[in-house]
């Protein structure tokens, strides 16, 4: 049986994404499992993710080229073909011929005609796109563009949309429980150290062997924000309350060389299993258990010196990596997820010792999930004070978006 081509895999993934509620990364992982060539796997990802990033603009071009009704499967093929022509610069013969070959016989003429019309009208299509509103030009839902323009300003909102449409860079954090940064770089000579994020490297390619040995963990440097603010030390009891898949928990273990008593938990069995596997591979020692802070009473645990609440969020700070998040979000989701964050924080906070330090963090850019949660919590719990609040903004700092607030629980001698 012939293996599927990258274009076939991309079309299959687009069809599945349109019909289901699954996220793109899970769909792509299954769809391209039958491709053995790494270059073809990468091309399938480029096609699938590229179409999702530029969905509104591609549909706008299709509307300019054909006003009659199109079925969903034909539209997916046209999106794929136009992405190759107008974004990738794929040679016309390959972009048109290979895309048309994927269409059922009855629609091949339509697909062929529209794509060839696009080749003839390329300049006018680009001119139309340049003059289109930001939500169309950069393919983001109008409600997201409007809220970012209000919260960040028009210039920064546009910069954020452009950022989200660029392929993400690949970063690795060296696992100091296994190797030094020097040894990692000797093993991966093309990796470039991030000067202001010690232990983080930008990688030109996936360091598969180092990952397998547990020498590194694929992790954006923005994750350093919450971990560094927690200021863990050896001998302390530390809770990572929403720990899966284990990136921050393993980082905490590495910073203390396993000399802190680390407790890590998450809500779902499959997430806890992934957490367990990652920590074992990285040599991070932790007490691991399953607990849902939303639905179950507070577990019987000894109090902690430090707590990290890396709360579930809307992921608006990582849309460059989560390419279809923008299409899954609804305006009401920010308040829905805020309620979940507030409830988790309220459940976890009593486990902190007086004088202890709790870091609340998200990978969201939205005030409802960040400052509003912190401000309300402090208002309701006068024994806590927000002593430091920081954020990473993609268009300003060049990394994924992140937010972190340090909540100090006053001791008996503090007013």
What does it look like?
The protein has 415 residues and is α/β, with parallel strands linked by helices. The chain contains 20 helices and eleven strands. The protein has a seven-stranded mixed beta sheet, sandwiched between helices. It is globular. The model has no long low-confidence stretch (mean pLDDT 95).
Supply the key terms:
415 residues, alpha/beta, four-stranded antiparallel β-sheet, 20 helices, 11 strands
Mean pLDDT: 95
Radius of gyration: 24 Å
Q: How much strand content do the residues show?
A: 15-25%
Name the structural class.
alpha/beta
What is shown here, in short?
This protein is an alpha/beta fold. The chain is built from 20 helices and 11 strands. Helices cover 48% and strands 15% of the residues.
Summarize the SSE layout with pairings.
Blueprint (H helix, E strand, L loop, with lengths): L5 H14 L4 H8 L6 H16 L1 H11 L6 H17 L3 H9 L7 H13 L1 H10 L2 H4 L4 H11 L1 H11 L5 E5 L6 H7 L4 E2 L6 E4 L4 H6 L2 E3 L5 H7 L6 E4 L6 H9 L5 E6 L2 H14 L4 E4 L13 E7 L14 H4 L4 H16 L3 E11 L8 H10 L3 E9 L1 H4 L4 E8 L6
Parallel strand pairs: 5-6, 5-8, 6-7, 8-9
Antiparallel strand pairs: 1-3, 1-4, 2-3, 9-11, 10-11
Helix pairs in contact: 1-2, 1-3, 1-5, 3-5, 4-5, 5-6, 5-7, 6-7, 10-11
